[in-house]
Amino acid sequence: MTGRVFFLLSFALLAACKAPPAPPEPPGEDSFPSVERPVAEIVSAQFSDEESREQAGEARKVMDLMGIASGSVVADIGAGRGYYTVNLSRRVSETGRIYAEDIFENTVNDLRGRVHAEGFSNVSVVLGTPGDPKLPP
């Protein structure tokens, strides 16, 4: 009888065991969240324009925390209109380099215009894709 109980318990335990789940598929470019998705209300109003961001000292705080100084080489991924690009360019000076990347051609063209108009010779504007920022090694 004990052998039979042991066998049934062993069988029940084995039946309860599951193989580990398969690792998830890596996300493809189709699964990348839309950049037009809504921003949380609590955040969007506080930093809605460059002037508000400057008054809050946003860029300075971030650059200080990251240790960005004259001569640094920095990638601004998702540069948008260039708020960080402009601040980074000033911080790293002529001895540094900024790679301002975005995935939208119109945005990149606008940013190129801004960089040119403001005379930032230490900024390279790069058109990337959601799967590859196209930055140099």
Commentary on this structure:
It is a single chain. The chain is α/β, with parallel strands linked by helices and 137 residues long. It has a domain at 72-137: Vaccinia Virus protein VP39 (Rossmann fold, 3-Layer(aba) Sandwich), CATH 3.40.50. It has six helices and three strands, in the order ααααβαβαβ. It has helices at residues 2-16, 41-44, 50-55, 58-66, 83-92, 105-118, and strands spanning 73-77, 97-102, 123-127. Strands 1-2-3 form a three-stranded parallel sheet, with helices on one face. Strand 1 (73-77), helix 5 (83-92) and strand 2 (97-102) form a beta-alpha-beta unit. The longest helix is centred in the first third of the chain and has 15 residues, at 2-16. The chain is elongated, with a radius of gyration of 25 Å. The relative contact order is 0.12. The model has no long low-confidence stretch (mean pLDDT 83).
Structural class: alpha/beta
Number of helices: 6
Biggest β-sheet strands, sense, barrel: 3 strands, parallel
**Per the principal axes of the C-alpha atoms, what is the gross shape?**
elongated
Give the SSE layout:
Layout: H1 2-16, H2 41-44, H3 50-55, H4 58-66, E1 73-77, H5 83-92, E2 97-102, H6 105-118, E3 123-127
Parallel strand pairs: 1-2, 2-3
Can you give keywords for this protein?
single chain; 137 residues; alpha/beta; Rossmann fold; three-stranded parallel sheet; 6 helices; 3 strands; elongated
Care to give the gist of this entry?
With 137 residues, the protein is an alpha/beta fold. It starts with a helix and ends in a 10-residue tail after the last strand.
